Amino acid sequence: MVAVVLFIAVICSFSFFAAFKLNRTFEETLPLLAMGIILILFLTGMINILGAGWIIVCLVAAVLYGYTIYWIIRGKSEVSIKDSIFNLVTPGFVVFAIISAMIAYYNQDRLAIHTDEFSHWLDTVVIMTRMDAFGTAEGSGAIFPSYPPAMSLFQYLLEKINMTVTGDFSEWKAYFAYQLLAVIVMLPFLKMKDRSLVQKLVIVISWPVCLILPLQFFKDVYSSLYIDPFLGVLGGCGFAAVSITKKKDWVYNVYMTMLAAVLVLSKDVGIYLAMFIGLYYFVDYISREGFGKKQLVWPLAPIIAMAAAKLLWKLELKVSNTGQKFSQPFNLKGTIETIQGNGNEFCTTVYTNFRNALTYRYVYYERLGFNYAAIMTLFVIGFICLHVSLYKRKQLNKSAAVSGAVIPGVVIVFYILSMFPLYISRFAEDEALNLASFDRYCGIMFLTGILLMFWTLRDMLIDADGKVIPVVLALGMLTSVYHSQKDNIVYYTSKQSVEDSQKYRYNVDLLASKINENCEDNARILVVINDGQDIIPAMLNTFSKPRVIDQSNGYFPNNTPEDGSSIISVDDLQAIITSEFDYVAVYDINECLTTNYMELFEEGNILSGSIYTYNKDAGKLELYR
User: How many domains does the chain have?
Assistant: First the structure.
């Protein structure tokens, strides 16, 4: 836990400085350094000094603490010590401390078990920590090196601090960093300086709802590293900040600017959200301040940051000769022909499946079910009503209110509808026909929308008249949302998900340990697996780097074909093993191996969880470990 405490100390350094020197509260400044750390590490990674970047971040944090303490001791603080302490130790600080401790406790010893964690989201953190470079670096072995690295950079900082303290990579700390960053982004909505007691109660009571809402669309949000929920959090907070922030000063402007850049650097689709958040911010800014020579930078700051982040990442991909995944142009002709009823069989089938998904897939709140089309409709209506209310309460002027009512709804509807041409243009045929990851992609937009609605509804509640009713309604909101996700919350807080991950990974980790202890760093290893175990080689690939892992079903099936189709001969498999691999690791014995290739093994003996090496003299695979 020492590494976690040091990590938190680093990301809180600017808030400590700002509380005493700038008279700003903890919760409004914490996101600035958290997102700033990502951008600093990104820039150092761009110039191939990522290994120095995390040290620079830590040194800057130390300087901020030292300078602030020196300033206090010299008695030069422009704000009274008492007021400064209250800027630092706010209700937001207390909530952050409690949530941080909870995240650490509930994630301690968690292990990765989801497929995409090993194809990218954890794998990249392992690569960056080992090489002090992006996944685009030569020899990294990254499967999706073109994916932007924002979250991985934040996790990288914690892992480097942890390795300095303990010498080891700690898997569960990647989950801690992910969840902590999501909380930090939402922390400004806990600001309650200059609020009445009733308003403070409403803010504190209702804020935890934002931690529960992601479970509505991502039931594994607190036990996986998939980036999609984080995109939804960024999107919802970006739109909501424009709609309900009352004091729109430099802190707000920097928050919005950094959020746009981090969105782009989180996932390719982030630029879509960042573009429209930047547009909404621009309209609101110009409608408040006008546009002239004195206002050339701030109105366009998020859009400039978005463009700069995108261009820099494209430059990194170009310089490193990294091909971009899923970058094929949309098949607009095929899309139009299919909608008109003239598409080919493949496009027509995908279109039918897509329409059915919009009408027959449901999200449930308690016993109320809403199909995807209904959810989009409710969002459009809700955004209009809520922003009319903001206009009537003089929170937004007319232009900003119209933009807030229209832009988020258009963003959600257009994105989801555009997934049809996406499927027929960029996905493999079987993935397109099955609408691969459709719920997850829609979940990004749905979470963006529900968070925007929650923050704006909550703002109405905070400003409502009365001393009892707003508090009761806040309690009712929290209780209702909690009850709707009680089973998922209990599963997470009972640490059952941690225990399940450890059980799932037990045999894999044993084999990975054997490989790491006994096989050379440059070894090539063929892993024998059985049905339903395709994820195992990916796991071993992540935890046995830089060794190269390949799986057996690329050379022979798990089961002997019943239709009489041929499989490679014993001699052919022996030739492949001797020419392409240094070791054979048997994770699980499959039927095809025992039926057709037993003679390859010394004395016909095969053990699961074991490593074999080829004995040229005996012409057999013999047990190595």
Answer: 2
